[in-house]
Amino acid sequence: MSFHFIILQAKGGLDFSLLITMGAAFLVMYFFMIRPQQKKQNDQKKFLSELKKGDQVVTIGGLHGKIYEMDDLTIQLEVERGMRLKFDRSAISLEGSKRVQTQAES
């Protein structure tokens, strides 16, 4: 009798193990891929909003400089005495700038 129950369950029943597996796969993907990326984006936004004149920063292209002037969308970096370059605010690298600031503090 139990053999017939298994066959009926496989034919017409809903396979909950598939749903559980798909749900677990989504949770793993969320916690290992989506959530860290969102956290990184939020950290980058916070970093860019806290920048101020005189901060040492690095662009995503690797250019080092000190913030000379800034507005809502752009930042002017002084890379040498009197040499200033204008960059988009989003071109400032969080990781590179933190590394430079940490080295300057040591």
Quick structural summary:
The protein is of the alpha+beta class and 106 residues long. It contains three helices and four strands, in the order ααββββα.
Write structural notes for this entry.
It is built from 3 helices and 4 strands. The chain folds into 2 domains: about 1-50; about 50-105, SH3 type barrels (Roll). A hairpin with a 3-residue loop joins strand 2 and strand 3. With about 110 residues, the protein is of the alpha+beta class. The chain is elongated, with a radius of gyration of 26 Å. It has a 4-stranded antiparallel β-sheet.
Q: What is the CATH level 1 assignment of the largest domain?
A: Mainly Beta
The coarse overall form would be: elongated
Strand content: 15-25%
Q: Briefly note the CATH topology name of the largest domain.
A: SH3 type barrels
Order of helices and strands: HHEEEEH
Rg value? 26 Å
β-strand number: 4
Unreliable spans: none
State the helicity in percent bands: 40-55%
Sketch the major β-sheet: 4 strands, antiparallel
Cα distance spanning the termini: 76 Å
The CATH architecture of the largest domain comes to Roll
Order of the strands making up the biggest sheet: 1-2-3-4
Helical stretch tally: 3
Class by SSE composition: alpha+beta
Total domains: 2
Average predicted local confidence, pLDDT: 85
